[in-house]
TrEMBL record:
Superkingdom of source: Eukaryota
Organism: Aerophilus sp. H4911
Name of protein: Cytochrome oxidase subunit I
Keywords of this entry: Membrane, Mitochondrion, Transmembrane, Transmembrane helix
Membrane-crossing residue ranges in chain numbering: 6-25
Phylogenetic placement of the source organism: Eukaryota, Metazoa, Ecdysozoa, Arthropoda, Hexapoda
InterPro entries: Cyt_c_oxase-like_su1_sf
Length: 36
């Protein structure tokens, strides 16, 4: 059961991270930081 919960948690975390990166790229890098 612990592995099942960890799998769901890692899946949700990876999906949210990919969505954040995709939005950050679509907005031209102004969301997280524009060091360049």
């Amino acid at each position: 059961i612990l592995y099942f919960i960890f799998g769901i948690w890692s899946g949700i975390l990876g999906l949210s991270m990919s969505m954040i990166i995709r939005m950050e790229l679509s907005m031209g890098g102004n969301l997280i930081g524009n060091d360049q």
